[in-house]
Amino acid sequence: MDNNTAAKNKITLGILAHVDAGKTTLAEALLYSCGIVKTPGRVDKGNAYLDTFELEKKRGITIFSKQAVFEHDNVVYTLLDTPGHADFASEAERTLSVLDYAVLVISGTDGVQSHTVTLFNLLEEYKVPVIVFVNKMDIAERSEQSLIDELTDRTGHAFGNFSTRSDEDIASLSEALMEEYLSTGKMSDDTLKKEVKGRHIIPVFFGSALKLTGVEQFLFRLSSLTIPFMGDPAAPVTARVIKITHEPDGARLTHLKILSGTLSVRDMINGEKVDRIRLYSGGSFKTTESAGPGTVAAICGLSSTYAGEMIGAGEKSADIVPRLLPAMSYSLILPEGTDIHKVFQDLKNLAEELPETGFEYVEETNEIKAGIMGSIQTEILKSLILERLGLDVSFGPGNIIYRETVTAVSEGVGHFEPLRHYAEAHVKIEPNERGRGIEIFSDVSTDELEINFQRLIMTHLAERRHKGVLTGSELTDVKLTVVGGRSHPKHTEGGDFRQATYRAVRQGLMYNTSVLLEPYYDFMLEIPAAQLGRAMNDITRLKGTVKTHSLTQEHAVIYGRAPVSTMHEYAFEVTAYTRGEGKLSLSPGGYDVCHNADEVIAEKAYDPASDLRNTPDSVFCAHGSGFVVPWNEVYNYMHVPLKTSQKSTANGNAVLLGALGPDAGASQSEPNTTSSGSSRSYTGSALDGELAEIFNRTYGGGTSKKSGNLFSPLPEVRHEAQREHVEIKPRDSVPEYLLVDGYNIIFAWDDLNDLAKTNLDGARHRLMDILSNYRGFKDITLILVFDAYKVKGGVEKIEEYHNIHVVYTKE
User: How many CA atoms lie within 13 A of 528 on its CB side?
Assistant: First the structure.
């Protein structure tokens, strides 16, 4: 790059579309109009300037985003061409965080597709200004105005026809433009640029990229509608990573956009040296010694970067959380005799390039799973694995990828203190906006926890896919905030805070209220008008919702949203009942509440307390050795007081909601609180004492002795800095208790009695479920007792079942 080019105005321009809209054809036409190519390439002929991979040429579709650089009207444009097929929407999304403007291409013959709306809404989330090019107008039967109206109806935004309409018509779409037009009789470029930049008005151009109609008009108006990227070349370097690729020789490339500063060869990024800087255009590149703000470059020499990462920003919360995620998970079926562990390692490069696949080795079933958006991506992934690894793989049946989130606020505590180790982490867990993923923050004084340990906890929060506690599905749409913790000057070692952090998240989830999420499709269903009633009934049956629909004498178009689990095979039904005249277009619609959560949870039968790889329990130290403290007793043993207050939820777990004294956790449903904020230790549970007292009044004394019975406290925990012992104070008000004799109820209830004759354990659990539901709407403490005086060798034990206490007496 010469100095003259480096100093020019720069704009990163993305080009997006639904499949077959002519997006790559428009990119070729723009490059031809600027003299970059002598003849516009064709996707169907495999000679497009930007479709450089053999697989793309063979399939005639864009799979990976590419860039081309062209100059027009003293502006250097970096054009990022993205895939149009919904199966590769994640690849398209990766470019959005670096775009200054986006060209959204729409087919004049197809109109506004469901994927078009998905892309438009995504651009709005990323705050990218949009310019629309309606393509294929040479063969379209619809008028320009009808397409403008459809755009407005589907998105709710103001679109201006910049191909034929007058300044007055365009000014009427914006208050700022109209005010200027009425006072001066014209619109200034500066005001127009600001209105486009702020997405108050969206310019629309009409033409035919294949016939080069309207392309030059669009190109010449581009500079009058856009504001070049502004960045300080003298500032510290910040950059956004777009994607990772690998060269055939194994070289790893980090594609990024420089937002500020000047990046030079031999500079250090995340402790690694920049070896080379490449500037790509199509399939070729040139090297440069440095690159300034607004430049999209590929960097050699970096091994730990990842798509969406913000380099130089200081906070990982600035990283991009993708919105479009795979809905289905498939098992890779490998050739017989293949070393599955080696294959999993060999997939590392491909996983970096396609992070949405989320390749995962499942030890329990000894299989590799991949997240896939659709059938076309399955074929492409199969081809890529054959090309890269020489393995002819196939895929098993697809399974829905569920996720979990929370609806309340809790503070999780993780403590890891085996002998000569020490770390405690406190993490507040709270709901986040749908689709925001996991965002990580810190809100704790450095006087309380050193900044390096705060950052360490945040790193451990970010490095893992945390599992939910309903089904073990991946956690999403939550805010994780470091609110407390403690280290030890001698005993805190590497890995201690990792253990404490993981346990804190799990323990906090156990106390929160979790919700199961499932993936949804946004759909557009085009059918003969006579089939409208059938289609509406089908959508209801498939648990979908209709957002809007249009009806003519011959055709009906329905726009809506439905779960992937019910909708992913509906296209076959549409083809059948419309005799091939119907068309179903599906686009990723993000995650929302699962329509059959109870059924899925029951089928998964996940027990979070038994998941030893993701344990919510903590490890404390007493008398020179470590011992495990169950998650629901950790609050009694923690070394740092909670920062968040606690109340009971509908499922009986304690949710933390404001400032809380250190006695929290003594009871799940009714925590004791005190006003003191100093660190304390506890020698027992107030709830256990109350249970013992009630139990003794009912069944007689002798069961609450302190040695070896179910009400005995765990060993007293002590740290080297002896903590103050706090006496648990009685509550001001007397709570209400209900004591239930389990076997008497079972044998007196016909249904339960019949069940007990074949499965006594099943009858017990059925009664536990009934009483748990009853407890959900009664503000009482419910104790279910199974008297085992005739059970040979039976021992006393107590357990928590959802929101009730279950007691088994001894022989």
Answer: 10
Pairing of strands 101-107, 646-648: unpaired
Q: Read off the pTM.
A: 0.71
- H/E element, 490: none
Three-state DSSP class for residue 549: strand
**Alpha-carbon span 217 to 680, nearest angstrom:** 74
Residues 6+ apart with CB under 8 A from 224: 189, 192, 193
pLDDT 10s digits, 572-629: 999 999 988 898 888 888 899 999 999 999 999 999 988 888 999 999 988 878 899 9
Q: What is the DSSP letter of 612?
A: G
Residue 354 to residues 52, 244, 299, 377, 566, Cα–Cα distance (Å): 17, 8, 18, 11, 26
To the nearest 10 degrees (0 to 180), the angle between helices 215-225 and 189-197 is 90
Report how far Cα 363 is from the mean position of its chain's Cα atoms: 24
The SS3 of residue 64 is coil
DSSP state string for 751-809: HHHHHHHH-HHHHHHHHHHHHHHHHHTS-SEEEEEE--TTSTT---EEEEETTEEEEE-
User: Comparing C-alpha atoms, which of 53, 56, 51, 55 is closest to residue 41?
Assistant: 51
Dist CA 526 CA 582 (whole Å): 5
- Cα separation, 495 vs 421, in Å, equals 9
- Cα distances from 639 to residues 77, 309, 488, 625, 808, in angstroms, run 57, 35, 12, 17, 32
Question: Of 237, 223, 244, 308, whose CA–CA distance to 267 is shortest?
Answer: 237
Encoded tokens for 761: 């354990």
DSSP code of 194?
A: H
The torsion of the CA quartet 259, 263, 268, 269, rounded to 10 degrees, works out to 30
Query: For all residues of the chain together, what is the average pLDDT?
Result: 82
H or E element in which residue 334 lies: none
Cα–Cα distance for residue pair 638/416, rounded to 1 Å: 10
Handedness of CA 675, 679, 684, 685 (dihedral sign): positive
pLDDT level of residue 653 (50, 70, 90 thresholds) = low
How many angstroms separate the CA atoms of 788 and 792, rounded? Answer: 8
Tell me the C-alpha distance between 807 and 768, whole Å.
11
Q: Are 141 and 109 in contact (CB under 8 A)?
A: yes
